[in-house]
Design a protein that fits this description.
Blueprint: E1 25-30, H1 37-46, H2 52-65, E2 67-73, H3 75-91, E3 98-102
Antiparallel strand pairs: 1-2, 1-3
Helix pairs in contact: 1-2
The chain binds L-tyrosinamide (TYC).
L-tyrosinamide is lined by residues 29-33, 35-37, 40, 59, 62-63, 96.
Length: 103
């Protein structure tokens, strides 16, 4: 059947959902023998907004397993958190280290 000239405008439209998941970066906290547990708890609560109970879980995981994920953020935010951890640690004379990993 021929197209109805009143309704067919000769334009084919297609909507395509193009949702882009932002790439997230995990901030990983590393264990060492010198940083105090108290300092690590403070960092987890202030920089990563953990509750005291969650901070304790993450800190113990780092202490026992060598590393743990503190959270996942956009690249800029993750990088800033890593730098903040290192600045705070340096201020207090601790060797605490954190790194980034693409999720
Ligand atoms: N291992 C440290 C200690 O026994 C505690 C510690 C936990 C250090 C987590 C770093 O990311 C860390 N004092």
């Amino acid at each position: 059947m021929a197209p109805d000239p009143h309704t067919d405008h000769g334009v084919l439209e297609e909507t395509r959902q193009k949702t882009r998941k932002p790439t997230l970066y995990k901030v990983i906290l590393l264990n060492d023998d010198y940083t105090t547990m108290e300092f690590v708890l403070q960092v987890l609560e202030t920089v990563f907004h953990k509750t005291p109970a969650a901070a304790h879980r993450v800190m113990m995981q780092v202490h026992l397993e060598g590393h743990a994920v503190c959270g996942a953020y956009s690249y800029e935010v993750a990088e800033t958190k890593v730098a903040t951890v290192q600045d705070l640690a340096k201020q207090d004379g601790f060797p605490l280290q954190a790194t980034l990993e693409e999720e």
